[in-house]
Amino acid sequence: HDSDDACMRSQKFQEDFLQKMNMLGEKTENGEPITIRTLLDLNEVCLRRHGFSDPWREQKILENKTALRMLRLRLDEVDKLRDNDRWIELVRGLLAGNMFDWGAQAVCEILEANSSFGLNEALSYIQPRPWLIDGLDEWLARLQGPSHRCAAIFVDNSGFDIILGILPFARELLRRKTKVILCANSEPALADITYKELKDVMSSCCDECSILREACTSNRLLVLPNGQSGPCLNLKNLPTELCEAMVHHETDLLVIEGMGRALHTNLNAKFTCDTLKLAVVKNKWWANRLGGDTFSVICKYECAV
């Protein structure tokens, strides 16, 4: 669509979305309760209906390019650290990367006010421990044991989040001889990276890091679509290809990142493999409900049940 009619289409989107919102009672048409996932999925459906298939596309491209220029420096910083100090910094970096979320009003205000806001600035927003949900010590203790066979990482945002947060973390898992499956959205949602975008980004990232390059070449690092078209994670909708890959590679660790995937959905879900759920709470209502403040940290590690 041409941008000339964007204002008209955005007005129609707003009317459509508000009408659908008003029609919702306490339950959806199929009898399920109204949840945040319901509203986020409705938002994406209405956007697509009015020609906004990927409204954040240009912003994602820009942030991916910016983050790529910083990747080598970030990896060098991490490599100077040892043992637990390295893993603590990798977790903090992953959380800091998750600050770059254009779907969160509190973050939008920061990013719009400071165009030079980068990973180091985001790290300063990560609260000192103990965190609101703090399972970091349990995660560090688990790392003293045998390596996981395969980790499936359900990723979130483009740019700093995936490139400077997730990839250094995944790289360290690869160093432990753990295979890694990066699971990205099948369709666009907010500024979340899609499977196709991540495939392209990985090609550039491999130019910056021999560990990532060798893992991709040997299929120890895979990128697969997760079957989602919104910012939440409904594990009932995982595609067959991903499920078969997780079984084939004997996945024994799930890493679920971001508010939509680890907080709005799956926070209290129990799994038959180890799980690490990581997010920064960028919504004041949610933070208050959990007993914390805006930018509180969720770092929840649970052993297999």
Automatic annotation (TrEMBL):
Keyword Ribosomal protein: no
Damage-control phosphatase ARMT1-like metal-binding domain span: 10-293
InterPro entries linked: ARMT-1-like_metal-bd_sf, ARMT1-like_metal-bd, Type_II_PanK
Cofactor(s) in the UniProt record: Ni(2+)
A cellular component term, taken from the record's GO annotations: nucleus
Physiological role: Phosphatase which shows a preference for 4'-phosphopantetheine and its oxidatively damaged forms (sulfonate or S-sulfonate), providing strong indirect evidence that the phosphatase activity pre-empts damage in the coenzyme A (CoA) pathway. Hydrolyzing excess 4'-phosphopantetheine could constitute a directed overflow mechanism to prevent its oxidation to the S-sulfonate, sulfonate, or other forms. Hydrolyzing 4'-phosphopantetheine sulfonate or S-sulfonate would forestall their conversion to inactive forms of CoA and acyl carrier protein.
Protein name, as recorded: 4'-phosphopantetheine phosphatase
